[in-house]
TrEMBL record:
Its main location: membrane. InterPro entries: ATII_rcpt (IPR000248), CCR1-9-like (IPR050119), GPCR_Rhodpsn (IPR000276), GPCR_Rhodpsn_7TM (IPR017452). The lineage of its organism: Eukaryota, Metazoa, Chordata, Craniata, Vertebrata. The keyword Ion transport does not apply. It comes from Pleurodeles waltl. This is G-protein coupled receptors family 1 profile domain-containing protein. GO terms for cellular component: external side of plasma membrane. It is a multi-pass membrane protein. The chain crosses the membrane at residues 36-57, 69-89, 109-127, 147-168, 196-223, 244-262. Keywords: Angiogenesis, Cell membrane, Developmental protein, Disulfide bond, G-protein coupled receptor, Gastrulation, Glycoprotein, Membrane, Receptor, Transducer, Transmembrane, Transmembrane helix. It is found in: Cell membrane; Membrane. Belongs to the G-protein coupled receptor 1 family.
Length: 357
């Protein structure tokens, strides 16, 4: 789990993996560009996910189970984006961590918690659509709210459990007069076995936090695709169901595109670390330099979801506008404009009448 921030793992194990002699320094541009991107994600993610959570909470009496999962997805994103100012400062200081051990542990834990909770919520959304379309209940019989609560509790419990290595093993360390927020395996492993721990945890994280959920979601949508046309033709609520399905598919696709470069780069790196691959020095250096940008792309996913809801779902758009009182403000402005135009028209007519007289 340790590979989620731009720590210099690529430097730490250079002597063992063939990185010695390779240029493992980051691009100078990264130390100024990435903090700006992090803060942009922070502002957009904080405001967007905050609106989603409040909108879902306000719609409680008529809330669909899909809305509940979307609300918890936004909650996971929100828990993560509040840590981005810390990571922005960490990157701007060229990976110097001045915030202490507790924030190092907590921030790292929230990064992993977000990734696992997000992908598990998306998987449950896909399963919910599969059950609603391929395995529907008899008419008038809603699905159990208890089952929904159990699935949400399971999502957070499993995500919290899988993220625990970051909380337990990550800590501040001083290297070359610089304090880094990094994994410390000294309590669980000897130095010669550390790369096995790093590689094992990395591959396990990718398998459980990306590959397996993505395969499940793909399977669900393949089953849905086989039934969707015939199912929707006989339903009055076909357009609404199609719209919800488009939203969920968009969420899954965007999640996969945002996280794929990160998981791909770190898997290639750690396979090289475990000597399964034998990368050239040039490729190793390129992975080191691209890693922060792949991480940033993964983080951007946390602020994109609210915009996907707003783009694909008119119902959500209307609720947000109502929440922000934009409709009332626009109506007030239109009313004032109408009154002004009417008054100007009356003055013009009076002036015209006076001229004629």
């Amino acid at each position: 789990m340790e590979e989620y921030q731009e720590d210099n793992y690529y430097e730490d194990y250079g002597n063992d993996t063939g990185y010695m002699g390779c240029d493992d320094s980051d691009w100078e541009l990264s130390f100024s560009l990435l903090p700006v991107l992090y803060m942009l994600v922070f502002v957009l993610g904080l405001s967007g996910n905050g609106v989603v959570i409040f909108t879902v909470w306000r719609g409680r009496p008529k809330r669909r189970s899909a809305d509940t999962y979307i609300g918890h997805l936004a909650l996971a994103d929100l828990a993560f984006v509040v840590t981005l100012p810390l990571w922005a400062a960490y990157t701007a200081l060229q990976f110097h961590w001045p915030f202490g051990s507790a924030l190092c542990k907590l921030s790292s834990y929230l990064v992993l918690l977000n990734m696992f909770a997000s992908v598990f919520c998306l998987t449950c959304l896909s399963l919910e659509r599969y059950l609603a379309i391929v395995r529907p209940l008899p008419a008038g019989r809603p699905r159990s709210r208890g089952a929904l609560r159990l699935s949400l509790a399971s999502i957070w419990a499993l995500a919290g459990l899988l993220a625990l290595p970051a909380l337990m093993l990550r800590d501040t360390q001083t290297r070359n007069n610089v304090t880094v927020c990094d994994m410390d395996f000294s309590s669980v492993s000897s130095p010669e076995n550390e790369r096995l721990w790093i590689g094992g945890l990395s591959l396990l994280t990718t398998a459980l936090g990306f590959v397996l959920p993505l395969l499940l979601m793909t399977a669900f949508y393949c089953f849905i695709g086989g039934r969707v046309s015939a199912h929707f033709q006989g339903l009055k609520e076909g357009p609404k169901r199609r719209r919800l399905l488009r939203i969920i598919v968009a969420l899954v696709v965007v999640f996969a595109l945002c996280w794929l470069p990160f998981h791909l780069l770190k898997t290639i790196y750690f396979l090289n670390l475990l000597e399964v691959l034998n990368l050239s020095c040039g490729l190793q250096s390129l992975i080191v330099r691209l890693h922060p940008y792949a991480t940033c792309l993964a983080y951007i996913n946390s602020c994109l979801n609210p915009f996907l809801y707003a783009f694909f779902d008119p119902r959500f758009r209307a609720q947000c506008l109502q929440l922000l009182h934009i409709k009332k403000a626009l109506q007030g402005q239109l009313s004032n404009m109408s009154s002004t135009v009417s008054a100007q028209t009356q003055k013009s007519e009076l002036h015209s009448l006076a001229t004629k007289v």
